Amino acid sequence: MTDTTETVHVDLGSRSYDVRIGAGLVTRAGAEIAPLLKRRRVAVLTDETVGALHLEALREGLGDISMTALALPAGESTKGWPQFSRAVDWLLAEKVERRDIVVAFGGGVIGDLAGFAAAVLRRGVRFVQIPTTLLAQVDSSVGGKTGINSVHGKNLIGAFHQPALVLADIGVLSTLPARDFLSGYGEVVKYGLLGDAAFFDWLEAMGPTLAAGDMAARQYAVRRSVEMKARIVERDETEEGDRALLNLGHTFCHALETATGYSDRLLHGEGVAIGCALAFELSQRLGLCSQEAPSRVRAHLKAMGMKTDLADIPGDLPGAEALLALMAQDKKVVDGKLRFILARGIGEAFVTSDVPGDVVRKVLDEALARR
Ligand SMILES: NC(=O)c1ccc[n+]([C@@H]2O[C@H](COP(=O)([O-])OP(=O)(O)OC[C@H]3O[C@@H](n4cnc5c(N)ncnc54)[C@H](O)[C@@H]3O)[C@@H](O)[C@H]2O)c1
Questions:
Q1: Which of 29, 198, 224, 364 has fewest C-beta within 10 Å?
Q2: Which residues pair with 145 in a beta bridge?
Q3: Considering 187, 237, 270, 281, which one is annotated as catalytic?
Q4: Over the stretch 313-371, which tens digit does the pLDDT of each residue have?
Q5: Annotated catalytic residue: which of 76, 237, 239, 281?
């Protein structure tokens, strides 16, 4: 079989790295990681689900590199202090040294937690991301944002710590439950919406094929998403400006995730998809984009069988005022002003802090009334 692995380089000076994208990378992990190693051992953090499905394949793929692993419970609630301190203490007990490599093998939860553990362990050790969800492959494994949640909100504790290498094996996505796959697709759509109308056109045409398991379509979607993220992160590594574009849909999403207690009532990518639809609605309400744009966003999400509105979230939700208060807790608040990502059309997003609260409240009120 010919190797169709592609590489996206993330150019960040001394913190540059490659994102390798292809099928079967887990089974070749040893050859990929070996050039980074000072001694032939790695410490792997994973979750129990991924561990049961893929850890033995990784162990084999590492060949003569010895591997020690800790599997944390699967799910967003792992991304907090208790499991974080357990992971850090385990890495110390395993005698991981300054020059060793920590491997994050799992979805965004494991990637964020393991990356943050690597950032603080002995004041910083290198780490390799082997993302196993679509969301982690197209988004969370690239760009160096690591961290955990607080009772005060999501991702409020963390550090910028770039990985030394990312291995996105599109083959492992085959075991991902359909709901998690579609949740990750929410972030894929986000890239088209924020900066590449032609990519959104392609997704409208190819999304169903991609979701049905077509490997070439899957690889293209992951590669294009990673390229877009890489170029934005290169321009603005620590989110002083342009990187905020990646938060399209996220101000709404984070409020909804807090309101639903980070539970499986709403997965992160589902919140992003709903948030993107609301951000386009808000843009239209502010006269920035045509009526057609939000309709097209909703139509595509619906065609993919995704959640598109507050009405699709099961259970109670707080009122518009309470949701606005949760938005104000978001990290995107600067000097008390809500920073929003709005759009002049599909593929034309921009950052602004000039959004009247009453218009946001109206958009939320109407969305709540549709429930
Ligand atoms: N750091 C960033 O830049 C960034 C960006 C976006 C999202 N995030 C974070 O990512 C997290 C969400 O990530 P996620 O959606 O990957 O969630 P996740 O890590 O919880 O994974 C979702 C579920 O899929 C399971 N799973 C993972 N890989 C699998 C596979 N190959 N086969 C079968 N099951 C598998 C996991 O066990 C879990 O139950 C959130 O905490 C979010 O804040 C971070």
A1: 198
A2: 160
A3: 187
A4: 999 999 999 999 988 876 555 566 678 999 999 999 999 988 888 899 999 999 999 98
A5: 239
Is 204 in a helix, a strand, or coil?
Answer: helix
109 pocket-lining for ligand 1 (C-beta < 6 Å): yes
What's the one-letter identity of residue 264? D
Q: Count Cβ atoms below 10 Å from residue 261 Cβ, excluding itself.
A: 12
Decide whether any atom of ligand 1 lies within 6 Å of the 45 Cβ: no
Structure tokens at 354: 């000039």
b/e string for 158-182 if b means 16 or more Cβ within 10 A?
beebbbbbbbbbbbbbeebeeebbb
> Ligand 1: which of 10, 49, 257 to mutate, most ligand atoms within 8 Å of CB?
49
CA of 313 to the centre of ligand 1 (A): 19
3-state secondary structure of 38: coil
132 C-beta closer than 6 A to ligand 1:
yes
**pTM score, whole prediction:** 0.95
Distance CA 269, CA 250 (A): 10
What is the rounded end-to-end Cα distance, in angstroms, of the chain?
A: 51
Does 145 participate in catalysis according to the annotation? Answer: yes
Question: Sheet containing 165-169: which strands, arranged edge to edge?
Answer: 6-10, 17-22, 165-169, 126-131, 101-106, 41-47, 66-72
Closest CA to 168 of 145, 191, 141: 141
2-40 pLDDT per residue, tens: 689 999 999 999 999 999 999 999 999 999 999 999 999
Q: For residue 258, is pLDDT > 80?
A: yes
Q: Which of 254, 298, 307, 339 is catalytic?
A: 254
**Which tokens hold the place of 209?**
């094929």
